[in-house]
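Weekly structure sync, notes
Attendees: PL (lead), two postdocs, one rotation student
Agenda item 3: pending single-chain targets
PL asked that the sequence for the first pending target be pasted directly into the notes so everyone works from the same version. It is reproduced below exactly as submitted, 304 residues in total.
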Amino acid sequence: MRFSTLGYSIKQGVKNIWRNKMFSLASIATMGACIFLFGIFFAVVINFNYIVKNAETDVSMTVFFNEDVDQATIDEIGTEIKAKTDVVKECKYVSADETWENFAKQYFEGKEEYKDGFKPNDNPLATSAHYEVYVYQVETQDALAEYIRSLDGVREVKQAEGATTTLTTMNRVIGYVSIAIILILLAVSVFLISNTVTIGISVRKEEIGIMKLIGATNLFVRAPFLIEGILIGLVGAAIPLGLLYVVYNRVISYVMTEFSVLSNFMAFMPVSAVFRILLPVGLILGMGIGLVGSIFTIRKHLKV
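Predicted structure, written out during the meeting:
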């Protein structure tokens, strides 16, 4: 398509929007509502995933050793675990003395005399040396635990099976719900854009017939309606995205200020990180919906 033809198509597309401004505004408003809802849903889901992923990295497995195992074997076990670099995020060794110190600090706080009742070399948790193993994704924990149990010198592997199951289920539910809601929003938006373009075709029916009689190509006739759909989608996406940027920033700031206790176990994604993904996705989604809606309508109502 030549630049002059493209310029004409854009101009006619804008005229179509202006001619049917009430329907265009209704489409932009509805599109904006859909993108706004999509943006809210996206922000909730991406933050929920972020919180869940952070929770996953805090769920550890504890690897205990046989009583007669030597330090060389313990080190070898650690090397074997750390070699699973695609699964293991961190593998930390905790000696029996460290385990006893941590236990005493937690349970004898304010009653240090109880701890003093034990001799310096009399560690009641002498067989409690262990590795604390953290994974990137909680779904991989079961397979890793089976592998570690097969290593020589490993007595037991403890894992938070309830937490693992819960987090895995939550990840799946989030994925299914996300797909369902996105499909519904897409279908509603395509329907609205389609109705607006249908009206534009009806209004210009006679003009289109004359253009065909004088030799206008199919692309030349169809292009303004495609541009119209894309522009409606672009404007309908840009407005709610700008509004979402302001709302998200203020809501997160308010929540973290008024409910500061949440910061101890919840971390929200900064607005820049969210919109680094949401902005291009929202704009492309809006233009794509407009284009698809226009194509469907043209095929159905514009026989050229």
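Discussion points:
- The first helix runs from residue 3 to 19.
- Strands lie at 60-65, 88-94, 130-135, 154-159.
Action: rotation student to compare against the earlier draft before next sync.
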